[in-house]
Amino acid sequence: MQMIRRTLLSTCVAAMAAASAGAVLGQTKEVKVGYALAVNSHYGAAAQAWADAVEKGTNGAYKFKQFPASALGGERELIEGLQLGTVEAAIVSTGAISNFVPDVGVVDIPFLFRDTQHARAVLDGAFGQELLAKFSKRGLVALAWGEQGFRHLSNNKHAVNGVADLKGLKIRVTENPVHITAFRTLGASPTPMSWPEVIGALQQGTIDGQENPISVLASAKLWQVQKHLTLTAHVYAPMALLVSPSFWGSLNDSQKAAFTQGAKSGAIASRVFVDTVEKKGVEEAKSHGMQVVEKVDQAAFRTALEPAYKEYAKKFGQKTLDTIANAK
Ligand code: PAF
């Protein structure tokens, strides 16, 4: 009897270990990678490039299994899964990361980056790489910065031509203190919500709008649930390619190099995807009947955000904000 119990126990322990540290398929180990959007999105492009590079770089020792469309839960659950070691890899937006690595919140400050090139240079440079290193203190391993694009505003109530039109609009924001402060300061009613709930909430009218880059708008076909789009470009949205520390600890140096190099390839693939989708996404939204306001007075938005900038300077330090702003 004791023998049977012991055998059962060791079978369970072996199964749990396989589930948490990457299942072993013959000689190949499976790497679960989760993300919020569909396979044919910038997330899917990043995951596929990462997977291909790792498979090649480890001579087939590791194979990715993709879990798109929040199949493993929202971004918060994914990050918790990495910390617990139940998920090996994930690609997540900074919308969710700030609650785990608060210093990352600095990149979520509205109108911080002048344009895409500025954002990429900062994230690929010393500042962005130091930020990636900070994840380890929070039980996460961050390998590269991918990209979603600049976030824009959509809603079902009316065209937003300027700051005044935001008054009272119930806008879903990520569960991110920097985003929440920004929309509250602009006079909207920010409603933090996990992404998997957003489409239903827009359909039911419990929120009026949301804000996300064109890459997300196109992937989620937001024109099906939103009438108005304003190209506010109010904040740049990176995404991070992460692995679980327990999984990372199981790799040797050359495998770690393959995962890191692969993550960089994934980040590049997301940027290439975003460059393409940004060119045609707005036209697609229009062709599906969305009313698009193509330009807003960004200086007026910045002025309205002055009280928020004071809060951000207190939180992250004016010197840090200046370092980013002055980067070429
Ligand atoms: O708005 C968000 O929560 C994120 O941008 C999303 C859509 C999950 C993509 O990472």
From TrEMBL:
Among Pfam families, the record links this protein to: DctP
Q: What is this protein called?
A: TRAP dicarboxylate transporter, DctP subunit
Q: Which SUPFAM superfamilies match?
A: Periplasmic binding protein-like II (SSF53850)
- UniProt cross-references to InterPro entries, sorted A to Z: DctP_fam, TAT_signal, TRAP_DctP, TRAP_DctP_sf
Recorded hits in Gene3D superfamilies, A to Z, give: Bacterial extracellular solute-binding protein, family 7
Biological processes per GO annotation: transmembrane transport
One annotated Gene Ontology cellular component of this protein: outer membrane-bounded periplasmic space
> Which keywords does this Swiss-Prot/TrEMBL entry list?
Signal
Q: Could you give a GO molecular-function term held by this entry?
A: carbohydrate binding
Q: Which PROSITE patterns match?
A: TAT
The signal peptide here is 1-23
